[in-house]
Automatic annotation (TrEMBL):
Lineage: Bacteria, Bacillati, Actinomycetota, Actinomycetes, Micrococcales
Protein name: Aldo/keto reductase
InterPro entries, sorted: Aldo-Keto_reductase, NAD(P)_OxRdtase_dom_sf, NADP_OxRdtase_dom
GO MF entries: oxidoreductase activity
Keywords: Oxidoreductase
This protein's GO CC annotations: cytoplasm
Length: 343
């Protein structure tokens, strides 16, 4: 079955062409946001690809391999219809922080083993974009990326990516092998990457793939209190979603909703349109990967491509970050912001 894309494409770094909006499949694993039905998830994936959202993002750690196996069911019929991204490097469940930050691994042997395991779960012979999910500070990034580059030479991977790296780490990696994309959290309420990482990506010709572009669902306006989160929802662990902080952060959603009212758009569409506006201003290809379990949300998110924000609207959205209460991660060093501050 071949889809008829209704969504344009763009080119990230290293000449990787993808749909201009992607799909973050992490939401389809029960260990992250609670229980989910696999058949319903597969239907949503097919709907996304039918609509032209062909850039699919997963990782070996999502559901301890469940996510990749789920996507393999789509790939069995539609491998040529999609651009497939997956990741390695987190050796523990990121949704289970009771014992602290999960360990990371970036040694060459682990990179090779992780890639082979992902290929087997996905049921494919090549990964279009292979990310280092988190940096293993015990291993020189040159070793990790060198091993990833060997996968390209072997034909197992087409392009390389990095997630939550600092500007310095990005430069070091790019010197070893061209980097197609950096994937880090970036949204109206998470703007720390604009300090160094985003400008460096633009300078080097590396594309940017914002994950959680809708603030893990918060910027859609569908969460009013902590009681809206399920017992197994890992957002309960994040400072911004603590009851007191979440209530204060509703002011950010109010600001997004007000601009949506001006444009006849939803808060989600406004938040995504802001990211595209920031990318255009920097000359940087930006491909957000919102995730949703519902097909209707996939269509809603794609509607952001029809929005054009005025400079005043962009400026107004920029200012909302000043009202945010709480860090985006329970461990600042788990994301690039913490390591950037130590440089």
């Amino acid at each position: 079955m071949t889809s008829t894309p209704a969504i344009p494409t763009t080119t990230l770094g290293d000449d990787l062409e993808v749909s201009v909006i992607g799909y973050g499949a992490m939401v389809l694993s029960p260990t992250v946001y609670g229980e989910v039905d696999d058949d319903a998830s597969l239907a949503t994936l097919h709907h996304a690809v039918d609509a032209g959202v062909t850039f699919l993002d997963t990782a070996d750690v999502y559901g301890a391999g469940h996510n990749e196996r789920l996507i393999s069911r789509l790939l069995a019929d539609r491998r040529d219809d999609v651009q497939l991204a997956t990741k390695f490097g987190i050796a523990g469940n990121p949704a289970d922080r009771a014992a602290g930050t999960p360990p990371t691994r970036g040694d060459a042997a682990y990179v090779r083993a992780a890639a082979d395991a992902s290929l087997e779960r996905l049921g494919t012979d090549v990964i279009d974009l292979y990310y280092m999910h988190r940096r293993d500070a015990r291993v020189p990034i040159e070793e990790t990326v060198g091993a990833m580059a060997e996968l390209v030479t072997a034909g197992k991977v087409r392009h390389l990516g990095l997630s939550e790296v600092t500007a310095t780490e990005l430069r070091a990696a790019h010197a070893v092998h061209p980097i197609a994309a950096v994937q880090s959290e970036w949204s109206v309420w998470s703007r720390d990457v604009e300090g160094s990482v985003v400008p460096t990506a633009a300078e080097l010709g590396v594309g940017f793939v914002p994950y959680s572009p809708l603030g893990r669902g918060f910027l859609t306006g569908t969460l009013a209190s902590g009681s809206d989160l399920g017992e197994r929802d890992f957002r309960r662990l994040l400072p911004r979603f603590g009851e007191a902080n979440l209530e204060a952060n509703l002011a950010v959603v109010d600001g997004i909703r007000a601009i949506g009212t001006e444009l006849g758009a939803t808060p989600a569409q406004v938040a995504l349109a802001w990211l595209y506006a920031k990318g255009r201003a920097l000359g940087l290809p930006v491909v957000p990967i919102p995730g949703s379990r519902r097909a209707a949300r996939v269509e809603e998110n794609a509607g952001a491509l029809r929005l054009t924000l005025t400079p005043d609207q962009v400026s107004g959205l920029d200012s909302l970050a000043d009202a945010v209460v709480g860090h985006r991660s329970e461990d600042p060093n788990w994301v690039s912001e913490g390591r950037e501050r130590t440089v």
